[in-house]
Amino acid sequence: MEVSGSENSPIVIDSLVKTYRKNFPPAVHLTGRMRIGRGELFGIIGPDGAGKTTLFRMLATLVTPDSGTALIEGMDILRDYRKIRTVLGYMPGKFSLYPDLSVRENLEFFASVFGKDIDVNYGLIEDIYCRLKPFEKRKAGKLSGGMKQKLALCCSLIHSPSILFLDEPTTGVDPSSRRELWDNLAQLKASGMTIVVSTAYMDEADRCDRVGMMKAGSFLAVDSPADIISGFSRKLFSVRSDDMFRLLKDLRSIAAVDKCYTFGDSHHIILKTGIDAAPEEICRYLTVKSGHSGVVVKEIKATLEDCYMNLEER
């Protein structure tokens, strides 16, 4: 099965498989062909261990697949890895710059690796680097998490790549830095850059053109956030009571409930296919049959996280 994208897509992934240890499930096991379009902001979402980092490392030519292949700007990740690295910007999840070099020295080093001059491509990073300018003599290892993120993004952009990979770039940074990063990505996308970003935060995926929901090395679904949500067709409720711990157990024991999980300060329940129920019925059952007090039940619209929970056990 081929997932949509134009014929001249800058990223084409074809049945990539990677296993690290014998007799263990593969870290990545993709089937069929998937294309990511030029200028697209594509999100890969899933929990730790889903295979996101391994997929990025294969696409960035840092890890070789056991089988399958991928094309980056028409170049094969096995045969053309040297050329691919000149058109690709990669920001790994773990801070990997030189902590003993200053902000400016790190930027100069990465520009020199690609034979580029900072001044030539400065316009690409100006909006990001302006926040770092007052600290450009500071050692990179002494920066805050948000500032490290900005520096890493600048270093991955300084050679003016056409494709940018970011592996969980907002993990461990403050909410303000998270918002700033996504605003930066929107500007880069507007310039025509193709961006692939992974995240464990479902709310961030709403800013992507399309998302791939990943679990155990495979994609559960690939589509726009709006289309994934619109495809959620089952009854979904938010439930609260005075005893939330016991409530979770009691909800899971109801025959009509397919899935139940904690979501913020409430529990969400997804009813089995074909089952219809009103909030009042569920409230009455929990109050009369299960002895709960302070029960509040609301029918709600699905979020991407609800969609993921609905898909993951299929």
Write the layout of secondary structure elements.
Layout: E1 2-3, E2 11-18, E3 28-29, E4 33-36, E5 41-45, H1 52-59, E6 67-72, E7 75-76, H2 81-87, E8 88-91, H3 103-113, H4 118-129, H5 145-157, E9 163-167, H6 175-190, E10 194-199, E11 210-215, E12 218-223, H7 225-230, E13 236-240, H8 244-252, E14 257-263, E15 266-271, H9 279-289, E16 296-299, H10 304-311
Parallel strand pairs: 1-4, 5-10, 5-11, 8-9, 9-10
Antiparallel strand pairs: 2-3, 2-4, 2-6, 6-7, 11-12, 13-15, 13-16, 14-15
Helix pairs in contact: 3-5, 4-5
Describe it for me?
With 314 residues, the protein is of the alpha/beta class. Helices cover 32% and strands 25% of the residues. Strands 1, 2, 3, 4, 6 and 7 form a six-stranded mixed beta sheet that branches. The protein has a six-stranded mixed beta sheet with strand order 8-9-10-5-11-12, sandwiched between helices. Strands 14-15-13-16 form a four-stranded antiparallel beta sheet, with helices on both faces. Helix 3 runs parallel beside helix 5.
